């Protein structure tokens, strides 16, 4: 059942409308007393992987509704105007929507929308906040978890058929995000990141849909078919190595994204189109998994080229 969650009139005569698709078990009229999972995407208008994930998830649950045992709410576009205009932020307000939570009921229109969304998700058993990378970087399917909530969330993150669970230190977690705000009010929230901005990586999306169904099965919300899921690497005791551009130019990778690289291995070069020279050889400082790799070739000094998860120490 498709519902309008929030509707706000805009100054130019248009309306900002945020919608959800609510799925209830067959022959059940009310969500009362049932576990509820919220799947949200589209906070950033240039991240489109979640659009395909929501389509696939809605399709599976609609066609196999007899297997649903809880409430599934799917919100494909929390920033519909951003998606319509292919803008990362909230058009006209020059801000990142994922930096204004939990919002304010007496604030500006964007803050009011954020506060209403928090109330909308309140009381859910869990939420999954789906992101892609930006247009510059490609990410393997992963879940990002605040170390302060790792004890509660890592076991659920491991059910989502991802390659990697990245446990962040508290100092890197922004308190103004949707995930932080929901975890603060008791809604266990996982942040999924996969793919690249403005593109859809179909195999990643299909894996994540299978992972969501697997999570629902473990929560007692789904008894339908689920494919076996991959057990992810968890970064709890491992460091992440960052490689940045030391020179401007054109980045050309020499390995595939998601490859394992060795310490001292060249995984790409920054070249100068004008002179025909190599400006920088990008070398791994550790043995590990290349889980982030530069997608957009043009780089400036300081641009992020790669993130590498160091191998487990033996």
Identify the notable features of this structure and list them briefly:
Aminopeptidase; 314 residues; alpha/beta; 21% helix; 4-stranded antiparallel β-sheet; OB fold (Dihydrolipoamide Acetyltransferase, E2P); 6 helices
Describe the structure.
The chain is an alpha/beta fold and 314 residues long. The protein folds into 2 domains: 2-234, 3-Layer(aba) Sandwich (Aminopeptidase), CATH 3.40.630.10; 240-310, RNA polymerase II/Efflux pump adaptor protein, barrel-sandwich hybrid domain (OB fold (Dihydrolipoamide Acetyltransferase, E2P), Beta Barrel). The chain has 6 helices and 17 strands. It has helices at residues 49-63, 80-85, 109-121, 150-157, 178-184, 202-218; strands at 2-9, 15-23, 36-41, 71-75, 126-131, 137-146, 164-168, 188-195, 233-234, 240-244, 249-253, 260-261, 266-271, 278-283, 288-294, 298-299, 304-310. Strands 1, 2, 3, 4, 5, 6, 7, 8, 9, 10, 12, 15 and 17 form a 13-stranded mixed β-sheet that branches. The chain has a 4-stranded antiparallel β-sheet with strand order 14-13-11-16, with no helix packed on it. Helix 1 crosses helix 6 (202-218). The longest helix is centred in the C-terminal third of the chain and has 17 residues, at 202-218. It starts with a strand and ends with a strand. The model has no long low-confidence stretch (mean pLDDT 95). InterPro entries: AstE_AspA_cat, N-alpha-Ac-DABA_deacetylase. Keywords: Hydrolase, Metal-binding, Zinc. This is Succinylglutamate desuccinylase/aspartoacylase family protein. Its cofactor is Zn(2+). Residues 35-217 form the Succinylglutamate desuccinylase/Aspartoacylase catalytic domain.
């Amino acid at each position: 059942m498709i519902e309008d969650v929030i509707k706000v009139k805009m100054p130019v005569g248009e309306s900002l409308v945020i919608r959800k698709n609510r799925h209830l078990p067959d022959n059940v009229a009310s969500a009362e007393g049932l576990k509820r999972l919220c799947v949200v995407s589209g906070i950033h208008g240039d991240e489109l992987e979640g659009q395909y994930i929501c389509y696939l998830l809605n399709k599976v649950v609609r066609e196999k509704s007899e297997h649903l045992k809880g409430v599934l709410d799917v919100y494909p576009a929390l920033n519909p105007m951003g998606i319509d205009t292919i803008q990362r932020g909230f058009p006209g307000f020059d801000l990142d929507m994922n930096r204004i939570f939990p919002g304010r009921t007496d604030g500006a229109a964007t803050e009011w929308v954020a506060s209403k969304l928090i109330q909308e998700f309140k009381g859910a058993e869990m939420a999954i906040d789906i992101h892609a990378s930006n247009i510059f970087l490609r990410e393997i399917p992963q879940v990002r978890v605040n170390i302060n909530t790792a004890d509660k969330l890592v076991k659920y993150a491991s059910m989502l058929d991802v390659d990697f669970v990245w446990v962040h230190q508290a100092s890197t977690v922004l308190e103004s995000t949707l995930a932080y705000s929901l975890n603060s009010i008791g809604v266990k929230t996982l942040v999924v990141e996969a793919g690249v901005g403005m593109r859809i990586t179909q195999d990643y999306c299909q894996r994540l849909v299978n992972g969501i169904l697997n999570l629902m099965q473990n929560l007692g919300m789904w008894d339908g078919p689920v494919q076996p899921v991959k057990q992810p690497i968890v970064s709890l005791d491992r460091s992440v190595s960052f490689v940045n551009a030391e020179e401007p130019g054109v980045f050309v990778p020499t390995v595939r994204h998601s490859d394992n690289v060795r310490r001292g291995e060249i995984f790409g070069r920054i070249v100068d189109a004008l002179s025909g020279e190599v400006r920088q050889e990008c070398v791994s400082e550790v043995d590990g998994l290349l889980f982030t790799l530069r997608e957009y070739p043009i780089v400036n000094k300081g641009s992020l080229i790669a993130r590498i998860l160091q191998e487990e120490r033996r």
